[in-house]
From TrEMBL:
Residue intervals of the Aldehyde oxidase/xanthine dehydrogenase a/b hammerhead domain: 31-139
Entry keyword Transferase: no
Provenance organism: Rhizobium lentis
GO MF terms, alphabetically ordered: 2 iron, 2 sulfur cluster binding; iron ion binding; molybdenum ion binding; xanthine dehydrogenase activity
InterPro entries per record: Ald_Oxase/Xan_DH_a/b, Ald_Oxase/Xan_DH_a/b_sf, Ald_Oxase/xanthine_DH-like, AldOxase/xan_DH_MoCoBD1, AldOxase/xan_DH_MoCoBD2, AldOxase/xan_DH_Mopterin-bd_sf, Xanthine_DH_Mopterin-bd_su
Name of this protein: Xanthine dehydrogenase large subunit
EC numbers, comma separated: 1.17.1.4
Region of interest: Disordered: 1-24
Length: 779
């Protein structure tokens, strides 16, 4: 694959890179042979750790008696924050506001105070319940309303985006309306929960196996708490049983605790919390309260928007700053706002610190925008799709391409995506039929909605947009690949291996995919922000380029041909008029002392961001999509069914269509759960009561749409020079599920003959749907 691949979007790439190859571990997943951390053979002398958790939401710790804990049979060591050799802090942003173990103050129910190390996991967990801790309770609040009632304390400086003159132009709008929307949080609910194993080494060395999306972050935190340099810490990750953003920062505490105990006791340590403890002690998706005002004309075209996005962030900052920032970045959804003012409120609450989750604030921002569109549509008695299309960003030269953060929207294909889906889903005819059905049906009501997705791709922290890869070719022509990305089931390893196989034109089984490790590729960014394939694919390509250049120079000299006469063909190399099998060619290069190893590197071009000014180009490009969903609700019970969903999604020129289709389908269903069945609930003592499968309901296979049509926009190619002209697929399709909430809203609105916007909050549980129906009956 030569340089022209990235300079000319019309170049057709042969080989495996755009093929529908199976996930490299698919057969292992379904047969149960894939090794996760808890499957690794346990080292001799392994000990197990458990957390001692607070039972107060906000309190001073007056005294701690751990004598019964230490005396429990099998317990080897009990330690607190005072026993941390380095700094008792696991904050990911340098804010020093997240203690590994609380010492004098607890700030959420379930906060770790001590750790128990024992011969068995059961002994450690049972012993942890025997602590006697005296507290002095302090005022606490666990939700956004409570935070606002107590002065609105913030965990980090908020951000403001502004363009135009919203203060003076809002009053000039022909029509105005105000509203409020509540958007619930979400538990990651991985198949594999958090887990870490630490193995002590010589001197200050320690090796950690962690279920994490960010090995370098674990390396940094472990070094931080042990007061040792990063070069003494090796972090390994072969695969995770799900990540979704929750393993970007939240795995640090388990890895750090395991490492401390391992170095103290000179034995391997494993921390694997119970599901209840995992859910209580680790962060979730932020829930939001959105207050909005919009000015528009009689046609439905938006003139001005003013909105505040308040978020429940928890007791510390964690990633709440960038999460609430991204909510504002996507508060425009796919729509141009001539005059706009957006403000974030990252509120402190006495709950676990919320963290990254697929979409990283973008879904909440986008949902607020779609509510604004819905409000306008009901106020004017129009189809929401018509209001959407009227307000889409325009093409260059239209004067409607500038975002609230002053980035030009380029390569905009949202209108084409929506028009195509509108046609293939038969949206107009079905909507008319549904209106007729609702007119005649007394108890069952239907709704349909077609919603768009425009999602920016890149880390908004510019420095994170870099990646490295290490590639070796051995004498027999087999290839070893290592890069900084982590595999959490999304197929990243397979895609990057396809890139490498395509570069050398060899079969995919010639490429060995090895565990991500900080010992091979340093200073990696988290596998997050949908950037895994973009960054690591390009880094692997760069490594391959270096090796190929050496191989071409070697062949040109040895066979006395021009470099242009050397061509890599499937499993062979053409040199002039001769063809040499790839393994033979490599062996000859080895004997000629050609370096067959390279470290590749890539950094995303063009991007920059000034948070204080609220201006810049935070995204390299945008991914697009649209979904059309039809639902039926029972107005007597609030129960509902998803009858049909049609999706058309843009992944550019797909690196692997089979994997990308799976990502779109999975993201939609996960988004469906967020907006319908998954509800987090804290009681008045600040206790999370939805902390297990018995009380927290993720979607089942039976919850998927009865008819589920998913297509990729095969005509799309990324206008930017990404790997193979592909686009990211991890997060953007999550927001396709907004169509479900909008369809439920239409069904509810039919009870009042579509006269008012139902203002259905998320998650739209059957209880909320029923309450909204009852409100509509009173209109």
């Amino acid at each position: 694959m030569d340089k022209s691949t990235f300079e000319n979007p019309k170049v057709v790439i042969s080989g495996p890179m755009h093929g529908s190859l199976r996930h490299d571990s698919a057969h292992k997943h379904v047969t149960g042979t894939a090794d996760y951390i808890d499957d690794i053979p346990e080292p001799a002398g392994l000990l197990h750790g458990a957390l001692g958790l607070s039972d107060r939401a906000h309190a001073e710790i007056l005294s701690i008696d751990l004598s019964q804990v230490a005396a429990y049979p099998g317990v080897v060591w009990v330690f607190t924050g005072k026993d941390v050799p380095g700094v008792n802090d696991t904050s990911s942003n340098g804010s020093h506001d997240e203690p590994l173990l609380a010492e004098t103050l607890v700030q959420f129910h379930g906060q770790p105070i001590f750790a128990v190390i024992a011969e068995t996991r059961d002994a450690a967990r049972r012993a942890a319940r025997l602590a006697k801790i005296d507290y002095r309770d302090l005022t606490h609040w666990h939700d956004i309303d409570g935070a606002l009632a107590n002065g609105g304390p913030l965990v980090i400086t908020p951000m403001t985006l502004q363009r135009g003159e919203p203060e003076t132009e809002m009053p000039n709008a022909a029509m105005r309306l105000k509203g409020q929307m509540r958007i619930g949080g979400q538990e990651h609910f991985y198949l594999e929960g958090h887990i870490a194993v630490a193995i002590p080494g010589e001197d200050d060395e320690v090796t950690v196996w962690s279920s994490t999306q960010h090995p370098s972050e674990i390396q940094h935190i472990v070094g931080h708490v042990l007061d040792i340099p990063s070069n003494a810490v090796t972090v390994n990750v072969r695969r995770m049983g799900g990540g979704f953003g929750g393993k970007e920062t939240q795995g640090s505490q388990f890895a750090a605790l395991a490492a401390i105990a391992a170095k103290k006791l000179g034995r391997a340590i494993k921390f694997r919390p119970d599901r209840d403890e995992d859910m209580s002690a680790t962060g979730k998706r932020h829930d939001f309260l959105v207050d909005y005002e919009v000015g528009f004309n009689a046609e439905g075209r938006i003139h001005a928007v003013d909105a505040t996005y308040a978020a429940r962030c928890g007791f510390s900052s964690d990633l709440s700053g960038p999460v609430t920032d991204r909510a504002l970045f996507h508060a425009d959804s796919s729509y141009f706002y001539p005059h706009v003012h957006l403000n974030s409120k990252p509120l402190k609450t006495h709950t676990v610190s919320n963290t990254a989750f697929r979409g990283f604030g973008g879904p909440q921002g986008m949902l607020g925008a779609e509510r604004i569109i819905e409000e306008i549509a009901y106020a004017l008695g129009k189809d929401p799709l018509d209001i959407r299309k009227l307000n889409f960003y325009g093409q260059p030269g239209s004067g409607r391409t500038l975002t609230p953060y002053h980035q030009e929207v380029e390569g905009n294909i949202i209108a084409r995506v929506v028009d195509e889906l509108e046609d293939t889903s038969d949206y107009r005819a079905r909507r008319n039929a549904i209106i007729g059905f609702n007119r005649d049906s007394r108890y069952i009501k239907k709704g349909i909605a077609l919603t768009p997705v425009k999602f920016g791709i890149s880390f908004t922290m510019t420095a994170f947009n870099q990646a490295g890869a290490l590639v070796h070719i051995y004498q027999d022509g087999s290839i070893h690949l290592n890069h900084g990305g982590t595999e959490m089931g999304q197929g990243l390893y397979t895609k990057v291996a396809q890139v490498l196989a395509d570069s050398f034109q060899v079969d995919i089984d010639r490429v060995k995919i090895t565990a991500t490790t900080t010992a091979k590729v340093p200073n990696t960014s988290a596998t997050a922000a949908s950037s895994g394939s973009d960054l690591n694919g390009m880094a692997a390509h760069d490594a391959a380029r270096q090796i190929k250049e050496r191989l071409v120079a070697f062949a040109a000299e040895k066979w006395e041909v021009a470099p242009s006469d050397i061509v890599f063909l499937p499993n062979r190399v053409r040199v002039g008029e001769s063809e040499i099998p790839f393994p033979d060619f490599v062996k000859q290069a080895y004997f000629a002392r050609v370096q067959l190893s390279a470290a590749g590197f890539y950094k995303t071009p063009k991007i920059h961001w000034d948070r204080k000014a609220g201006r810049g180009t935070p995204f390299y490009y945008f991914a697009y999509g649209a979904a059309c969903t039809e639902v039926s609700i029972d107005t007597l019970t609030g129960e509902y069914l998803i009858d049909r969903t049609d999706i058309l999604h843009d992944v550019g020129r797909s690196l692997n269509p089979a994997i990308d289709l799976g990502q779109v389908e999975g993201a939609f269903v996960q988004g469906l759960g967020w907006l319908t069945t998954e509800e987090l609930w804290w009681d008045d003592k600040g206790r999370l009561r939805t902390h297990a499968p018995s009380t927290y309901k993720i979607p089942l296979a039976s919850d998927r749409p009865k008819i589920f049509n998913v297509r990729l926009a095969e005509w799309s190619e990324n206008a930017e020079a990404t790997i193979g002209r592909s686009k990211a697929v991890g997060e953007p399709p999550f927001m396709l599920a907004i169509s479900v909430l909008e369809a439920l809203s239409m069904a509810v609105a039919s009870v009042a003959d579509y006269k008012v916007c139902p203002r259905l909050d998320a998650p739209a549980t059957p209880e909320r749907v029923l309450m909204a129906v009852e409100r509509m009956k009173r209109v």
